[in-house]
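Question (not urgent): is this output format expected?
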Amino acid sequence: MHQSYLGRNPSLPPDRPPQIAVTRYKVVLPSGVTGWVSASSRIADDRYDITRFVPQPTWRYHPSLKLLERTDPRMKGEGGQRGEKKIAAFDLDGTLQVTKLGTPPYLATSTSEFRPYSDSVTSKIRSLHSDGYRVVIFSNQGGLGDKVEGGKADVVRGRLDELGGVWGVPFTAFVATGRSGSKGGGKCRKPEKGMWEWFVEEHNRGVRPDSGDSFFVGDAAGRQGDHGDCDVEFAKRVGIKFFTPEEYFGPEGR
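Got this back:
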């Protein structure tokens, strides 16, 4: 999502219609942060000047860990900033999003097949950010393996980037792409705590989150009808509180 700031030139008559063409340029700062700047190409006047720089999220894949990560340079803890003690962590499938038709998410071929788990998701995420929580997503996507470009991988990345646009809140996401028992794949796959440890050491400046203020929300809670218990076990292993989506967001679809 690219944003711009339009600043009006007060010396020009207000009745003259603005006529500008906008060109976006991708830039890399000395710190290594990649982003976009927008510059106005004057057609009729100098009424508008586009000046805002908007850093864009970065995706990286770690093949030895079978871990795909999404980082946002605006997030505290990234780019040399301080780590956070309050972590609001979430699963993706069945927690933040569900498929519109109730089909398994791994069968989806487009981001348009998903909807928010409930109407309260966006407001809850924004409130957490305002209250000083760092928002982090931990998701198992074993169907990807090492295929982190194109196809299903593009759907997963697209879903997360679209959430960033809807929420307007910076967040970090970790996607475990290996299957249980696969070589190197089980280390970061929930309920193992590899994703959490990687986050703490590599993306939170080594700061250990406060167990009383941090929590994880996920749908795999070992209940009758659940597809497993990896989410509740993940929370136990990393030592933070656990909530189901129903407990945290309320009933699905409302």
